[in-house]
What does this fold into?
Amino acid sequence: MFVAPAYAQTPATDAETHTETGVADHGAGEPAFPPFETESYPSQLLWLAITFGLFYLFLKKVALPRIGSILEVRRDRIAQDLDQAARMKEEADEAVAAYEQELADARKKAGAIAQEARDNAKAEAEAERREVERSLDAKLGEAEARITEIKSAALKDVGTIAEETAGTIVQELIGGTVDKKSLTAAVKAVGQ
It folds into this structure.
């Protein structure tokens, strides 16, 4: 236990017993708690009013202005953030609308380019088809001319072969010879 130096130097009397709190026990039993003693009420009320007044002034002059300025700064920052968010949302909406418009224009342009390419390919195919048909018609004409030549040559040769064959047959059957003019006339008469 700690003992205050003033108590250690002064001898205690038998009638008075000191406790650790320094309050004398007057033999009335339990000592009273000092704030509950009625003799100290006026001083307690005075110190309560002074403390409350000082605390009120501290709150009014120091704490509340700081809290108010912090709240004002936060309110301004929130308002700025909301304004910036609204502005950015508008910009994003405009960018999306511009993108969609450009996409629609690009699709339209791509459709026009594809249609033009189809038309060009169709025109080229048609021109190529006509060229091939002309080439085939020319080849067909040449082939028909050759066939006609071959046919006339073959028919000419057939007449000669027929004349020779007829002359050989007559010679074999009759045993005589036939003149060439009458044989040619007879083959021509049969061929018509």
